[in-house]
Structures are given as structure tokens and as C-alpha cells.
Amino acid sequence: MRIDELKSTPGARKSKKRIGRGNGSQGTYAGKGMKGQKARSGSGAHRGFEGGQLPLIKRLPSQRGFTNIFKTIYETVNVDTLSERFANGSDISVETLKKANIIKGRNPSVKVLGRGEISKPLTVTAAKFTAEAKRKIEAAGGKAVES
């Protein structure tokens, strides 16, 4: 067998149906129906085209972009809330905040914010602290421990 004798198997190559070419081709409209965009040559409308109406993706600007599934969402707690709810010298962690119904969620990451005043020395363990919150906790004689 030589390379010039190779042939594809019967039925493997099928030519595209050429409609609308010549006298005997499937009647008047050649299988494309009446007039209109889909009866013309070339491709049809692009994906998302709504006939000239403003497309849905442009009508809903909030739906553009994407949602980052790896984003860390922090539950926030203010310094004044800690001062109100906990006694002097308390150790505050995610578990104690959950038991006190200050935060919700299965595995929350906590960020402590600096709103309000704190007068008690508390040991606070959280994922993040703002600079103001850290300053206020340490000024009251407590510790801000990042976990």
C-alpha cells in the first residue's frame, strides 16, 4: 500500500447540503422559510441579541462582573460592644462571641472595629483588628491577639 492509495472510509466525509443553488432546489425558498434575518446568507444574530431591544446584560448593571468565591467575609464587632457585654479580664474568642450571640455563621472570621470606648482590660482573639481598635484595647490594659 502506498500513500497515494489511502482513502477515507465510505460515509466518513459528507459534503454540506448546498441549498438554494439552481432550479431544482427544494422549492421556492430552499428550506429557509420566508424573508427575514435567518433567511439571509451569513450567520444569524449573536448570542444575547434581542432584536435591537437593549439587551438584558445591559439592563441589569448589578449582574456584570463576577463573584469571587475565595473572598473572605468578616463578621464585624465594635470595641464598645465588647466593653458592654464582657466582664473585666475576659478572654474573648470566636466561640465566646458566638455564645453571646454577637456573631453568626458556621466558621466566621472576626474583624474588630474601633467604634466606641473600652474601659476594661480584655484579651481579644480575632482574625483582624483595625489600628484604632488595637490601640483602644491596649490602652485599656488588654491584649489584641491576631489568630
Describe the structure.
The chain is α/β, with parallel strands linked by helices and 147 residues long. The protein has a domain of 73 residues: Ribosomal Protein L15, Chain: K, domain 2, CATH 3.100.10. The strands form 2 sheets. Strands 1-3-5 form a 3-stranded parallel sheet. It is elongated. The relative contact order is 0.12. The mean pLDDT is 88.
Largest sheet: 3 strands, parallel
Task: Tell me how many strands there are.
Answer: 6
H/E series, N to C? HEHEHEEEHE
Class per helix and strand makeup: alpha/beta
Which sequence of strands runs across the widest sheet? Answer: 1-3-5
The outline comes out as: elongated
Helical segment tally?
Answer: 4
- Average pLDDT number: 88
Which second-level CATH architecture of the domain at 74-146 applies? Answer: Ribosomal Protein L15, Chain: K, domain 2
The gyration radius over C-alpha positions equals 35 Å
CATH class of the domain at 74-146: Alpha Beta
Query: Which consecutive residue ranges, at least 5 long each, have pLDDT under 50?
Result: none
CATH fold-level topology of the domain at 74-146: Ribosomal Protein L15, Chain: K, domain 2
The helix fraction, in percent, is 10-25%
Task: Describe the structure concisely.
This protein has about 150 residues and is α/β, with parallel strands linked by helices.
Question: Secondary-structure map with pairings?
Answer:
Blueprint: H1 56-59, E1 74-78, H2 79-85, E2 91-92, H3 94-99, E3 109-113, E4 123-126, E5 128-129, H4 131-139, E6 143-146
Parallel strand pairs: 1-3, 2-4, 3-5, 4-6
